[in-house]
C-alpha cells in the first residue's frame, strides 16, 4: 500500500508540476500525515524536492504552506534514431528538455558491427555533451527502418547490410542498465504525432517518408497499432498501392543537409513554391504517385485524418493541395481529412522521447516502481533555496 501511494503521489507531481500539500491531499485522497511520510521518502530518494516558501506575508496566520515538485533533472532518457545514412542520438531530462544532441553521418553500406560500435561511441559523446553519466539513463528508445518484431528482432532484408534477423533491443540493451525499447521509425513518428494532438484525433494514418523510403504508422482508437508481430504499415511490400517506389527529385536527400543531393532538391522545392511550371509538374507527379495509396487507406480504414510526415511533411504546403485536386476526381470524394505533420522531420525524435516517458511511467508510477528504480540516478537534490532560484 505504501508503494502504491508513493507511486501515485509521484505521478501526480510529474503530471501537474509543483503542488502544495493541500492540493496533493485532495488529488490523492490521502491524509496529511500519510502524504508527509511519502514525501519524506521521495525527497530522501531524490525524486522530489521541497520548494522554498515565498516571502512571509504579514497577513498570513500560522505556518506557510509547503510546496513540492518532481525533480525532472533526477535522471535522463536517451533517443537513438538509426537511419541508413546517419545515427542521431539525443539526451533529454524527464520533462523531455533536450540536454545533448548529436548527428553522425555514415556510409549506407556500413556493416552491422561497425554501426553498433559507432552507436556506442555516439552515446558516449552525447552523454558527455549533456554532462551526465550513463548510469543516469532510466529509459532508451531506438527507432530503425524495417519491421520490428514483438521480441525486438529487426527484419530489414534490404538497404542496410546485415540489418535483419537479430535483436536490436538486446544489442542496445548491452549498452545501458535500463529498459530499452525498439520500434519502426514510421510507427514512432505516428506516436509523436499522437502526443502532439493530445487525444484530439482518435484515428489517423501517418504516411512517413525518409527521402524515397516510405512506411505508415497507424493510430486507431488513440493507440498505436502494430498489427501481427509488428508488420502493420509496411506498405513497401504492398506494391499494388503504388507507394513502394516513390521516386521523385523532390524527395532526394530533402531533410538531410549533409547529403550530396540536398542543395539541388531544395532548389527544386523553392522553385515549386515560387510557382515555376517545371517544378510544379514534379509536385503533380508526386501527388499522382501518392493518390492511389491514399485513396485505398481512406476507404479501407476511414480514419479521421491521413497525415503526411517526414519528407512528405516538409512538402505539405505543396503536396496537400495537389493531392486534394487528384482525389477530387475520384467517383466519390473521400471523407478523410489530409493534413501535414505538426513536427515535420522532428516527429521521430518526438515519438522516441514519448516512448521513453511511457517506459518511465511503467517503472516509476506503478506500485512497485519506486522500489524498483530506487534512488534517483543523479545525486544531491538542490536545497529549497536552490530550487526556488
Beta-strand proportion:
15-25%
Major beta sheet, strand line-up: 6-5-4-7-11
CATH C-level category of the largest domain: Alpha Beta
How many domains comprise the coordinates?
3
Helix content: 25-40%
Q: From the coordinates shown, what is the CATH architecture of the largest domain?
A: 2-Layer Sandwich
Q: Uncertain spans, ≥5 residues at pLDDT below 50?
A: none
Please describe the biggest sheet, giving its number of strands, its sense, and whether it closes into a barrel: 5 strands, mixed
Broad shape: globular
* Order of H and E elements: HEHHEEEEEHEEEEHEHEEEHHEHHEHHH
**Count of individual helical segments:** 13
What name does CATH use for the topology of the largest domain?
Answer: Nucleotidyltransferase, domain 5
**Structural class by secondary-structure content:** alpha/beta
CATH homologous superfamily identity of the largest domain: ATPase, nucleotide binding domain
**Number of distinct beta strands:** 16
Provide mean pLDDT, rounded. 87
End-to-end separation in angstroms reads 35 Å
Radius of gyration: 24 Å
Family: Belongs to the ROK (NagC/XylR) family.
Pfam families: ROK
GO molecular function, one term: kinase activity
InterPro entries: ATPase_NBD, ROK, WH-like_DNA-bd_sf, WH_DNA-bd_sf
Amino acid at each position: 500500500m505504501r508503494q502504491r501511494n508513493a507511486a501515485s503521489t509521484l505521478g501526480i507531481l510529474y503530471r501537474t508540476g509543483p503542488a502544495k500539500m493541500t492540493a496533493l491531499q485532495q488529488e490523492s485522497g490521502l491524509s496529511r500525515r500519510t502524504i508527509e511520510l511519502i514525501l519524506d521518502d521521495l525527497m530522501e530518494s531524490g525524486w522530489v524536492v521541497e520548494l522554498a516558501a515565498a516571502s512571509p506575508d504579514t497577513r498570513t496566520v500560522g505556518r506557510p504552506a509547503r510546496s513540492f515538485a518532481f525533480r525532472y533533472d533526477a535522471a535522463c532518457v536517451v533517443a537513438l534514431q538509426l537511419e541508413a545514412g546517419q545515427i542521431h542520438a539525443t539526451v533529454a531530462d524527464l520533462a523531455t528538455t533536450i540536454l545533448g544532441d548529436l548527428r553522425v553521418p555514415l556510409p549506407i553500406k556500413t556493416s552491422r558491427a561497425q554501426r553498433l560500435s559507432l552507436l556506442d561511441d555516439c552515446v558516449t559523446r552525447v552523454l558527455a555533451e549533456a554532462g551526465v553519466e550513463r548510469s543516469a539513463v532510466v529509459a532508451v528508445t531506438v527507432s530503425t527502418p524495417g519491421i520490428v518484431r514483438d521480441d525486438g528482432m529487426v527484419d530489414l532484408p534490404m538497404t542496410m547490410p546485415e540489418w535483419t534477423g537479430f535483436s536490436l533491443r538486446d544489442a542496445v540493451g548491452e549498452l545501458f542498465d535500463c529498459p530499452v525499447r525498439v520500434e519502426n521509425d514510421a510507427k514512432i513518428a505516428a506516436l509523436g504525432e499522437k502526443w502532439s494532438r493530445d487525444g484530439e484525433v482518435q484515428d489517423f494514418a501517418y504516411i512517413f517518408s525518409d527521402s524515397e523510403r516510405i512506411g505508415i504508422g497507424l493510430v486507431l482508437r488513440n493507440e498505436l497499432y502494430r498489427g501481427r508481430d509488428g508488420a502493420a504499415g509496411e506498405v513497401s511490400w504492398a506494391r499494388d498501392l503504388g507507394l513502394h517506389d516513390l521516386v521523385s527529385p523532390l524527395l532526394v536527400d530533402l531533410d538531410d543537409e549533409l547529403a550530396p543531393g540536398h542543395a539541388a532538391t531544395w532548389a527544386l522545392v523553392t522553385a515549386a513554391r515560387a510557382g515555376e511550371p517545371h517544378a510544379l509538374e514534379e509536385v503533380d507527379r508526386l501527388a499522382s504517385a501518392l493518390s492511389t495509396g491514399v485513396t485505398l487507406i481512406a476507404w479501407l480504414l476511414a480514419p479521421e485524418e491521413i497525415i503526411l510526415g517526414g519528407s512528405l511533411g516538409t512538402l505539405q504546403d505543396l503536396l496537400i493541395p495537389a493531392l486534394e485536386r487528384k482525389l477530387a476526381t475520384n467517383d466519390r470524394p473521400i471523407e478523410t481529412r489530409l493534413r501535414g505533420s505538426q513536427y515535420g522531420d522532428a516527429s521521430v525524435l518526438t515519438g522516441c522521447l514519448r516512448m521513453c516517458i511511457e517506459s518511465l511511467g511503467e517503472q516509476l508510477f506503478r506500485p512497485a516502481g519506486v522500489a524498483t528504480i530506487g534512488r534517483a540516478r543523479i545525486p544531491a537534490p538542490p536545497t529549497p533555496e536552490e530550487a526556488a532560484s
